Amino acid sequence: MGLIPYRFLMTRFARRMDQVEVSGIRRIFDLVEGMNDAVDFSLGQPDFEVPEPVRRAAVAAIQSGSNKYTVTQGLPALVERVKDEMKRRGGFKDGGVIVTAGSAGALFLALGVLAEEGDEVLVPDPYFVLYKHVVRFFGAKPVFLDTYPDFRLRPEKIEGAVTPRTRFLLFNNPVNPTGMAYTADEVAAVAAVARKHRIQVLSDEIYDAFVYDFPHEPILKHDPDAVLVGGFSKKFGITGWRLGFAAGPREIIDKMAMLQQFSFVCAPSTAQAAALAAFDVDMTSCIQQYRMKRDLLVDGLKDRYELVRPQGAFYLFPKCPWGSDEEFVRRAIEARCLVVPGRACSERGTHFRISYAQPEEKLRRGIDVLNQIARR
Ligand code: PMP
Question: Count of domains in the chain?
Answer without folding.
Answer: 2
